[in-house]
Amino acid sequence: MDTKLTGDPAMRNLERKIRSEIEKLLLISTVVCLCLEIALAFYYYIIQDLGQPLKSYIEFRILVPFGINMLLWLITRFSNRSGNSTDSTKNRVCSISTLLMTGVISLAHSYFIPLWILPLFVVMFSSIFHDDFLQKIQAGICFVLILYSGILHMYDYPTERTFTIICIVIAEIMAIIVSLMSFKLESYTKMKFLITERSLTGDGKLDTDSVTGVYTKAFLTGEAEKILSQTNENEPCGIAVLDIDDFRLINDEIGHDKGDDVLRALGSILSDYIDAGTLIGRYGGEKFVVLFTNAVPEENMEDLNRMRKEFAKKKFSFLDRSVTFSGGYAWFDMKTDLSRAVREAEEALARAKNSGKNKIVASDESDESEE
Prior knowledge:
Oligomer: single chain
Structural class: alpha+beta
Radius of gyration: 30 Å
Shape: elongated
C-alpha cells in the first residue's frame, strides 16, 4: 500500500503554503540574527571582554553567519519558484536550509551550550513533509553540527575539556532520542492517515459492520481486490477465512440475539488486530476474512492463532461451554483476485473443520494445530 501522503491536491497546496512561510521565516530570522549579533558585539565590546580581537569577532560571529543565512534564504527562494523542481525537492531544500541556519547559529555561538540542540527542533518539525529520506539526512547533519559545536567550544575553552566532552555526549544522546521519536511519530502519523482514509466512505461514515465492528463485506471486497491485484514477490499478501464452529446450533438452540452476542465478542477481538497492514471484515453470517499486506506466513499464523485462543477463552453466561472458530490461511506472492484467494483459504478451512475444529490450517500444510 502506498504510504505517500502528498498525492492529494489539498495536501500539495498545504505544503506549498508551508514552504512559503518557511521562506519568510528564514529571511526574518536572518535579519533578526544580524541585529542581535551587532547588539551582542556592542555589549561585549563596551561592557565585557569579547574574548577575541574585534575584527575576528565581526568576521566569525556576524559577517560569516549573515552571509551563509542570506545564501540559504536565496537558495530556498529560488527552489520555491523553480518550475523544474518537484514538490519533494522543494520540501527538502526548505527543510535542510532551515536546519543549516539553526546550525550556523549554534556554531557561531557554541559557547552557549543550549544552542547546540537547536537543530533538533527542525528535525521534529520536518516530519510534516512525510519524507523518511529527508528525516534521516537531517538527523545525520544534526549529529555532525552538535559534534562540531562541541569542538569549537573546546577550542574556545581548553580548560573545560572534560565538561565539554560530557556536554557533547549528552547532546548526541538527546539527538538520537529525538530522531528516533521523530521517526516513530512519522510512522504512526502515516498509519493513522491510511487507516482513516481507508475507513471512511464517501459520505464520511465508517464503513464497518453494525454488529461486529469490523469492516463490511462490500468495503473489504473493494480494498482486497485492489491489494491483491498489486501483489508481487516484494509485496506478498496473506488471506485467512475464519468461521465460528457450530454457530448454527447457537442460533437454533438459544436464538439469534445470543448469536449476535457471540459475533460481537469475536468482532471485538478481531478489531484489535486491524491496522495499516491488516484488513478484517465480516464476509457473511459467522464467516470473517483477514487480509495481511506485506505478509510473512509465520507471523500471520501466529496472529491468527492468538485471535483463536483469545476467543476460546471468552465466557458467555448463556452457554456452558466455550465457543471457538476455525480458520484457513493462504499466501500469495503474485497477482490474484479475491474469489480465488478466498477459495484457496476456504479449502484450508474445510480441512481445519474436518480435523477437529478450533485450529488454523495453512493451504500448503495438511493440518496446523495450535490447541
